[in-house]
Design brief:
This protein is of the alpha+beta class. The chain contains four helices and 13 strands. The C terminus is likely disordered.
């Protein structure tokens, strides 16, 4: 057993130590909830566009001194602003990073880009280990096809555009055609412009025929 008063002295020392450490300064971390840490609000309108469409991006950082974009858009950005993306031909992820004296912040948003009249986002790919296709957002793709066999050989370019626009509006997402017509067009193997595709491919070395 210690000397009288020892326990009291130790207890007082512990209280003093606890009070001293309560005021110790802690270094902020990158994921700190410190109100001075940077943060970003990133929005994109619209969130889905047709291929070739553009998106209006708005970013509003707090406590940031500099920002930089990556992936679907690029370059150093102001610490707040609005910008229109270049034409998007495929799905894109817009990324922005901002930094300040008390850390950094990261934000991203994904933009879907598809065809007119279709909810499918291209390109498509096979589902791993399965026998069906997925679009670029990993949604199963139901193929709704039109068998326009002689489209390439029979129609002019303007007529092809008219036909495909009509099929898009009706929800078709695939076309089955003959690349070279040999029998059923008006003047096989010539196309609507009286060009012989067989001779053309042979002259350019683009195909092999028996």
């Amino acid at each position: 057993m210690g000397r009288p008063g020892t326990e009291t002295a130790c207890f007082i020392a512990l209280i003093f130590y606890a009070a001293l450490c309560a005021g110790c300064r802690r270094e902020p971390s990158s994921n700190s909830s410190d109100p001075a840490s940077p943060s970003i609000k990133l929005t994109a309108t619209p969130p889905r566009v047709e291929r070739g469409g553009t998106v209006t991006v708005r970013w509003i950082p707090r406590n940031a001194t500099g920002c930089a974009a990556a992936d679907g858009w690029h370059g150093t950005k102001r610490t707040d602003g609005v910008e229109t993306t270049p034409p998007l031909m495929a799905p894109a992820e817009l990324v922005i990073d901002c930094s300040g004296p008390h850390g950094f912040a990261h934000a991203s948003i994904r933009i879907a880009a598809g065809s007119r009249g279709s909810s499918t986002v291209f390109p498509v790919h096979t589902a791993p280990g399965q026998r069906y296709l997925l679009d670029a957002t990993d949604r199963p793709l139901l193929i709704i096809g039109d068998s326009a066999w002689s489209l390439i050989a029979t129609l002019t370019a303007a007529e092809v555009d008219l036909h495909l626009d009509d099929r898009r509006k009706l929800g078709f997402n695939a076309i089955l055609v003959n690349l070279i017509e040999h029998h059923f067009s008006r003047d096989p193997p010539n196309n609507a412009y009286d060009s012989d595709w067989v001779l053309l491919l042979r002259s350019t070395g683009s195909g092999t025929f028996n």
